[in-house]
Amino acid sequence: MTAQIIATLLPVFLIAGCGTLYGRFRTPDIRGLNTLNMELFVPLLVFAVLADRQAPLADYAKLALAAAGVVLGSGLVLWPVARWLKLEVKTFLPPMMFNNSGNMGLPLLVLAFGEQALPAAVVLFIVEMLLHFSVGLYMLSPHTPLWRLLRMPIALASLAGLAVNLGGVPLPGWGLEAMHMLGGVSIPLMLFALGVRMLDIDFGDWRTGLLGAVLCPLSGLVLAWPLIVWLELSGLQAAALWVFAALPPAVLNYLVAEQYRQEPHKVASLVLIGNLGSLMVMPLVLILVFTHVYPPG
User: Fold this and answer.
1) What class has domain 1-291?
2) Where residue 54 falls among pLDDT bands split at 50, 70, 90?
3) What is the C-alpha to C-alpha distance for residues 147 and 138, in angstroms, rounded to an integer?
4) What top-level branch of life does the organism fall under (predicted)?
């Protein structure tokens, strides 16, 4: 089991470390890379996985509901905590709710459980992204029109992939393979970009960042257990939800806070210190999963 955990986490941190090392000596256009990834490579991966008729998407409906419960429930659970500690709710809650299901979640789930985990990982990623660009934007700006969600390439790719899968539309194998290959670029690129972002850590708000590094995974894990029992999730889907629930805040929270001028320096601390904290949290969660939920092999 120790070897499995090392084999899972080591590639994640090595690739992110390469991004940090490269960013230390160069100044890569990380925003341009992220735009390319989110507008081309990730939508192709999402479409290819959802459109592949070998993935019975109806089997993942309960997992999607559980993921939504973790995301939205984290906000409800931590709202009174934020008020009690006199934290700005719009600054603190979104990073606690919207986790790093892309940069860390996708590669971590695939490395931990193999390629058979990719459909579950994509479903979790889509749920988190759609909620982030609907509920998350509404939290920061209640007047944001929700129709903007449909302009996102990921949303369009999700709808198209679901239509192809559920409609039984046959796609040529060579086309799916090309999209899988291009989409496969997105996973290491997410980790590399995350590593570059780690250079921007601001320890000026380290207390808030440390608090978030504890409460973000804790709130998710507290919610995951009753959801797994209630929805009767088991095996790979239960294991995937445990990992999803423990993920740190998404880097996207910082970009959104910057766009809406919602104390981006504090959000940066929450995001980046939270991701550093995952170095301790994720091994513990994987021990739990491999021991009690989904043993390796």
Assistant:
1) mainly alpha
2) low
3) 12
4) Bacteria
